[in-house]
Write a structure and sequence with these properties.
By secondary structure, the protein is of the alpha+beta class. It contains 25 helices and 37 strands. The radius of gyration is 37 Å and the shape is globular. It binds adenosine-5'-triphosphate and magnesium ion. The site of adenosine-5'-triphosphate (ATP) has 16 residues, from strand 5, strand 10, strand 11 and helix 7. It catalyses: tRNA(Ala) + L-alanine + ATP = L-alanyl-tRNA(Ala) + AMP + diphosphate.
């Protein structure tokens, strides 16, 4: 029996630990603080600052397993997934790193030792590649890597590769360098004898696949496309865990290894359809096999993205997740007959599988499952609406070809992938205008590119200094110099970003907005609009650059705004603890926003927070405010120690080895937090919840205010009450007074109704006496004094009951608006073909209005009461 997936992962980590590597946890799959990246797409992402020399190196050797997602940006494998057997949306990347420590020689030797000695892969089946060089970039062939490999691998299996395969780049800009890949040939011996494996490397053969890439980071790709040498040389490796497991277990597909078989089995059993791993596109069970792979794969991406805090939504990263989920639901619906939500049922299986590896999932299993269930429900409804829309289109259009714009509507509004539309069209003997569809798609892509494009220039160094010091926890003023700056353009607006050597400005993070303020000296004053973080770097936004970049500045934070923001931030902590106390321990933070005006807190909870619960929560928080609890701020607490002391840590947050702990009363609120806070809770003044609502399935939102805003709110409420009291002539008991007002109002209403009824009954007799006979028809055409439409209707029905052969036209003035009613006996409708609906439309012209109804009864309203008379006179012509 070969090793299990679990054992293989552990063997990797143990091996590198034995070579002096620190084993670190995976970063969350959802990336914050990096505008160039939505999701972690490689193990190196979390170390980007280290490569660029922007953060200090703690451990020169590190290894881990990183959950990665390749569904957007430079690395996007989504369309391949499920069709092939070795590209996933989410996969684990096993990696080892050297930050300015060892280089090519050790990296190559260790990767060989691990694969062949420890994991016992067949040496004959391994091929390696090295960079052949690139003239345009001015880069030579990687002779060093070639020579190091020669010690282990015959030269016939060391292949030279071009820039596309052997020069790794994270994105359009950023760290990069030549790389050396390791490929595995999994074909049968006969096939291998027939065709030389070397010819199949990097040629998309599903049995000759890349398993490991060793990148030798040497450069930073700049905005203008040029390469700049990094301050030091690094090793960055990434091995696809699922591919490694598959080759060790001797399988021809990743989905046949024990990483995926439990899930594939469950899907297949639930669908009642066997999984045919060997199906090819020509087989009729191909679609079913792809569908099972898509579901087994996508559930991983969806579940981990949600666990790391990215809910499906309508824009940006949330939309990417929504689309992945919809792709899976659509396959399940179309090929496996899952018409009801099913994907969410895979979550417990997955959570159990990753227990002890990525515990994020098991600890939030219910929440993740619920979110997926709701998404499935709503998409299945959309899907059904889309199918109806499609059927209607086919009925309304006789063309043999489906319009490209319509196919795009199905794609864009109903989430139909184009191949689904094509398939549905084919079933009806139709085709789809693909060129038209592509044009629409292209147009949309351009629209969204234009909307989100951020054009960032390269950094221009002003002063050399690696370390940036943030002093904003203790100071709001500092003496600063500019280290570097760059120009950025977003949505047509140009701005400058500045990096300072010392800064009191808090950069937006953890929900707290960035500081604003000024940089000033005796010669000039530059306004800082905002402060943000990119990776680790604190960036200050300004509309203009100082004339003298080299000058020394006094950096001043806008203190008033900062203090109000701090009130709201500390109140958020008090609220979080109160929510847990009142609602239960399942409450987890799912998002927060803290600025000078308001605090907004999203949290997992499955039902509406009741008014009583809100009152309890407010009471607890205000109690804590009045206790004036001093802030306890501890910096540089070892992460493990902080956890043991019972702090609240957030999912989807990447914590370092040392963390900052914010405590308000050891037994009440203890959170890991990088934000700024009040010195004591009394500063918060007063806490008031102003709204409670739902944001997504299983996620509630509370908005609250504090201090000045809370005071303003309460004053407004008091003022409102004062105005009301005055209106009611200052009663002793306001509630009672309003109640009796309502009661009186009801009584009056009833009395009016009664008198209207009485009036109508008198009118009935009067009208009956006004019948004139025209051509055997009993005509009544009168203006009446009744100002209630319901009463007029009743009257008309009563007259119909007591007068035969009736043609009734009533005019009335209801509060200044003319109203017409026509009622015709049923026999006249039948025999004479009279139609009240048609007649009333004609009569309504006289009162500048319109109306309609049935052949026997119709009403109209209008604007001109003067016209009532002529309308009534006109009625008679219908009887002649
Ligand atoms: P490929 O050419 O097969 O797409 P790649 O060149 O994109 O691979 P790298 O960016 O070098 O891969 O990533 C390092 C390793 O991660 C690869 O050697 C492979 O084992 C694994 N890997 C890359 N993309 C995926 C994916 N979509 N699913 C699973 N594993 C992957
Ligand atoms: Mg790739």
């Amino acid at each position: 029996m070969s090793m299990t997936a679990k054992e293989i992962r552990q063997a990797f980590l143990d091996f590198f630990a034995s070579k002096g590597h620190q084993i670190v946890p995976s970063a969350p799959i959802v990336v914050k603080n990096d505008p160039t990246l939505m999701f972690t797409n490689a193990g190196m992402n979390q170390f980007k600052d280290l490569f660029l020399g922007e953060a200090p190196i703690k451990y020169p050797r590190v290894a881990d397993t990183q959950r990665c997602l390749r569904v957007s940006g430079k690395h996007n494998d989504l369309e391949e997934v499920g069709i092939d057997t070795y590209h996933h949306t989410m996969f684990e990347m096993l990696g080892n790193w050297s930050f300015g420590d060892y280089f090519k020689k050790e990296a190559i030797a260790w990767s060989w030792e691990l694969l062949t000695d420890v994991l016992k892969l067949d040496k004959d089946r391994l091929y390696v590649t090295v960079f052949e060089g690139d003239e345009k970039e001015g880069l030579p062939m990687d002779q060093d890597a070639y020579d190091f490999w020669k010690a282990f691998v015959p030269e016939s299996r060391i292949l030279k590769g071009n820039k596309k395969d052997n020069f790794w780049e994270m994105g359009d800009t950023g760290p990069c360098g030549p790389c050396s890949e390791i490929h595995f040939d999994n074909r049968s011996d006969e096939e291998r004898a027939k065709v030389d494996g070397a010819t199949l490397v990097n040629a998309d053969d599903p049995q000759v696949i890349e398993i490991w890439n060793n990148v030798f980071m040497e450069f930073n790709r700049l905005k203008d496309g040029s390469l700049k040498k990094l301050p030091a040389q690094h090793v960055d490796t990434g091995m696809g865990f699922e591919r490694l497991v598959r080759v060790i277990q001797g399988k021809t597909s990743n989905y046949d290894s024990d990483v995926f078989t439990p899930i594939i089995d469950f899907i297949s059993k639930s669908a009642g359809i066997p999984y045919n791993a060997a199906a090819t596109p020509d087989d009729k069970d191909w679609g079913q096999a792809v569908a099972m792979r898509v579901m087994a794969d996508h559930i991983r991406a969806i579940a981990f993205a949600i666990a790391d805090g990215q809910l499906p939504s309508n824009n940006k990263a949330g939309y990417v997740i929504r689309r992945i989920l919809r792709r899976a639901v659509r396959y399940a619906y179309q090929y496996l007959g899952f018409k009801e939500p099913f994907l969410n049922k895979l979550v417990p299986l997955l959570a159990a599988q990753f227990k002890g590896v990525f515990d994020e999932l098991i600890s939030q299993q219910d929440f993740v499952q619920k979110v997926i269930l709701e998404e499935e429900n709503s998409f299945l409804r959309t899907l059904e609406n889309g199918i109806n829309r499609f059927e209607k289109y086919i009925q309304d259009n006789q063309d043999r070809q489906i319009d490209g714009a319509f196919a795009f509507e199905l794609y864009d509004t109903y989430g139909f992938p184009i191949d689904l539309t094509e398939l549905m069209a084919r079933e009806k003997g139709l085709t789809v205008d693909m060129a038209g569809f592509d044009t629409e798609l292209q147009k949309q892509k351009e629209r969204s590119r234009a909307a989100t494009a951020i054009d960032a220039g390269d950094w221009i160094t002003v002063n050399e200094d690696d370390e940036v010091e943030f002093v904003g926890y203790d100071e709001v003023v500092a003496t600063s110099r500019i280290l570097k700056y760059r120009k950025v353009k977003a949505k047509g607006k140009e701005q400058y970003q500045l990096v300072l050597d010392v800064t009191p400005f808090y950069a937006e993070s953890g929900g707290q907005v960035g500081d604003s303020g000024v940089l000033e000296n005796e010669n000039e004053s530059i306004i800082i609009n905002d402060t943000k973080k990119e990776n680790g770097l604190i960036i200050h936004f300004a509309d203009v650059l100082p004339h003298n970049l080299n000058a020394t500045f006094i950096a001043k934070v806008n203190v008033h705004t900062r203090r109000l923001t701090e009130n709201n931030h500390s109140a958020t902590h008090l609220l979080h603890a109160a929510l847990k106390a009142v609602l239960g321990d399942h409450v987890n933070q799912k998002g927060s926003l803290v600025n000078a005006d308001v605090l907004r807190f999203d949290f997992s909870h499955f039902s509406k927070v009741t008014e009583q619960e809100i009152a309890k929560i407010e009471a607890i928080v205000n109690q804590k405010v009045r206790e004036n609890i001093p802030l306890k701020e501890e910096r540089n607490v070892p992460y493990q120690k902080a956890l043991e002391s019972g702090v609240t840590a957030l999912f989807g947050e990447k914590y370092g080895d040392y963390v900052r702990v914010i405590t308000f009363d050891d037994s009440y609120s203890k959170e890991l937090c990088g934000g700024t806070h009040v010195k004591a809770t009394g500063q918060i003044g007063y806490f008031k919840i102003v709204s409670e609502s739902a944001v997504a399935a299983g996620v509630r939102r509370i908005e609250a205010i504090t201090a000045d805003k809370a005071e303003e709110y309460i004053n407004n409420q008091a003022q409102l009450l004062a105005v009301l009291k005055e209106l009611l002539k200052n009663p002793k008991d306001l509630t009672k007074s309003v109640e009796s007002l309502l009661e009186e109002n009801n009584k009056l209403k009833k009395e009016i109704e009664k008198s209207v009824l009485e009036k109508a009954s008198v009118l009935k007799d009067v009208l009956k006496s006004k019948v004139t006979v025209v051509n055997d028809v009993n005509l009544i055409a009168e203006e009446i004094d009744l100002s209630n439409a319901e009463a007029i209707k009743n009257l008309a029905y009563q007259l119909k009951d007591i007068v035969d052969n009736l043609f009734l036209v009533l005019g009335a003035n209801i509060d200044g608006k003319p109203n017409l009613t026509v009622m015709i006996s049923d026999n006249l409708v039948k025999e004479k073909g009279l139609d009240a609906g048609k007649i009333i439309r004609e009569l309504a012209k006289e009162i500048n209005g319109g109306g309609g109804g049935q052949p026997f009864y119709a009403t109209a309203g209008g604007k001109n009461p003067e016209g009532l008379k002529s309308a009534l006179e006109k009625a008679i012509i219908y009887l002649k």
